[in-house]
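Batch job 17 of 40 flagged for manual review because the log was empty.
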Amino acid sequence: MKINTPLKFAILICLIISFFVILYSYLSTLFNPIIVGSALFIIYFSATYYLLKYQFYEKVKIIYKNIYKFKGTSNISDLNLENANIEAEQWADQKEEELIKMKENENYRREFIGNVSHELKTPIFNIQGYIQTLIDGGLQDENVNLKYLKRANLSVDRMINIVDDLEVISQLETDNEVLELDNFNIVDTINEAFDQLEMKANNMNISLKLTNESNSDMVHADRNKIQQVFMNLISNSIKYGKDNGVTNVRLFDMSDKMLIEVADDGIGIGEEALSRLFERFYRVDKNRSREIGGTGLGLAIVKHIIEAHQQTINVRSTVDVGSTFSFILEKGKN
């Protein structure tokens, strides 16, 4: 019979006590009562110790060790039963939090897969439509064939951009992409981004401006990654800017660090959207985003790159006033 309930344990203890009382009563009439009492006490103590140790203490200790193992500690010197319930509650709370997080991640994964399929579906259907039109006779129509081939090519470019951005995020999230930290001139990096985006800015009638209020032009970071941050932030400011607007990249001195801001006077972002702004495929204005291009992954990439540098990307924005994205980098040596 397994002693696994309080009732069974109480019955067993009562039987043991009764047995030793009867045994003492009988033996004390035959031998010296003090010697008999001492011997029975030692036997009773040993039996009780064995019962408590192997029926309860050791079983509880196994659970306690498992709790510590989950916490990352393999060995414990002793078990304190007074703290066991607290430890168990803390472990249960931790497991509950992990379960909630796992469910959130599962929902996020499903949402992400849905977003990827939705983003890829549009260019795929476009390509299919253009090719079908050409097959149905459009290929011989000089007014249609080249135009539809160019449109199909643009849709292919969009798919390639989505896949490239997904690859970048995957590398950043799995830590396969190692940062190549070095000292470099951040002003030159910003100007290079301006040069690459100048035509896009001119088409949107937006001016690009650099304001350097820092006492240094040098930062210590991964130059290629930070250039990608500027390309994404400046490109976004152009997309959501206003006619005759300005995108201003500002550098501020912070002792051994530098504060960088990318500010615009565009359409701004509503407060309800700020908390989701850096999610993959999240768009504040979906119609405008797709009209002017973009994968919906730019800000998610920015967030991962800045966090890889052990920093945080921040944003403040007011609708119809503009948005400012800011982050901090370590200063480099000249």
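Reviewer: the log was empty due to a logging misconfiguration, but the result itself is present. The chain has a mean pLDDT of 80. Unflagging and moving on to job 18.
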